[in-house]
Amino acid sequence: IVKHTDRDVNAGDVLRMVDLVIYGSFLEEKSFPDILIKAMCYGKLIVAPNLSMIRRYVDDRVNGYLFPKDDVKVLTSIISKVVARGKLTPLAHQVASIGKGTAANLMVEEAVEGYASLLENILRLPSEVANPKPFAEIPSQLKNEWQRNIFNVVTDARYGSRNASSHLFLEKIERQWSHKKEDTANSTSVKDEEFLYAIWEEQKQTDFFVARKRREEDELKDRSEQSRGTWEDIYRSSKRADRIKSDLHERDDGELERTGQPLCIYEPYLGEGTWAFLHLKPLYRGIGLVSS
């Protein structure tokens, strides 16, 4: 049974149901196709064109089947050999199982080479430390398959005890570090308070001396002889004061006597009818005291 599925469908769900995966793209890829990696990990038989990237990891009739992209008839021949009576042949199952092992260690060499190059570029070791060996000198067994046995110590009880002791050591270091940070923060706050108090005292002394100097200057200014100017300046100043006084319509006793009244008391008139004329001149009302 041949089924066509949408690309949006989960590839894992589809691969679990199929028996055979045919890769139909003839484009040269920069990396091994992800769909083929997933199919091989699920133990499914793959049939793909003999592209350079695919030939790098798939050996024809060993862990998969390859056909030339220019001759599609070979694909028909491959299908007739691996499928019999609607099921995969025993040889096809054997090839698929080998492909599953290949997928488990796929791209180990590229990963090891990439990490080795990364470490060479970012690590700056001191002169007394021996430089790491180049990638070409790494043993082939470390580049052909993942060294999963290294991680088996995770389940070891002794590793658990070492892990617990490591946690205790880290907790001890963290407590010491936190106490040091608290002591540093407290000492810093005390130093800040002392510094601010010193600045405040200095500013207080400065303000005191400035006020004292200003007071002494004012006292010396009052005691020193000041030039009053000539008599003409004094006369002009008095006339100017008289003009300002007359402009304000201030009347003294002598001016009241010149009006012909023995005595007259004037006060501003604040009646309602005067508001329209306030912009001209002040209005007065007077009470005259005469014998008649």
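[next item in queue]
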Amino acid sequence: MRKLLVVCLVLIFSFVGTSLVFGEKKEEETPAWLEEKSFHPPQSNAAMSKLAFVDFMNQWIGVTGEDAMETAESIGYLPDFKANERSAIKKEEAEAILSHLFPMADWPEASNGNKPVKLKDAIQYVESLADQTYTTGTYSNQTVEGNALINQPGVTLEDTTIEGDLYITRGIGTEQTILDSVTVHGTVYVEKSVQNAVKLKDSDIGLVSVYTLGGEKSDWSLVWGDEFLTEEIDSSKWKHDIGNWIVDEDGEGISPGWGNNELEYYTDSEENSYIEDGNLVIKAKEEQKSDEFGSYDYTSAKLKTE
């Protein structure tokens, strides 16, 4: 009787211990931004249904709704899944979705493309693109050694360095995402529908690229660009011409109207050129202006790239 009791106790404690270890492992692997659903895999080594994978992707880019399939369809990446959404998703199907959501990334061609995607595979997709994901809140004094991603509204980064690229998805919505004193050594990729919600303050950004869901990956390398995400015109990229005359190196007038009979006197005033809603605005004003060469009835702005 005592032997039987000991065996029963050992079995009970073994079962409880295994359950706790699995729970801790899953909590460690599951992304903090993921809201788990009843149709998600029960463990990281389990295959994902098409419904679960689509919901996972929706949450990753920060676009959610009551029906995961309808949400995916509304942003244009839903394959023919509705008839069999509970069946396992294959790797080649999953990577087609990844290429639609992040067309700028170098997703490898699926090996064993007919194999099902497991939850741990989906997590690896996330981690291969971004080492850090920022959700709603303010983050200060951080260094990200790889890539980072922002997928929710109301994110502010302060005094932060990102050694790789920064991805900003449509999940940020219309609420401002602020990069304040942020250095990004790579490229900032901003989804087209939210580009006007991103604001830069005293930040050092390599390049900014606006992408479209489902867009084609370009073979071209962008060497210069300005998406006008700053509050003021970036003087490292733009130079104002001042006045109305072309002058020589000694400041002597050579030709009026910049050689084109232009009537405006060009200024660097914020009244004549400024950033508004992600656009560079140049505004002509009817007002008097004079210099050593004459008088003018209008002011405006003329900018050149540096």
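[queue empty]
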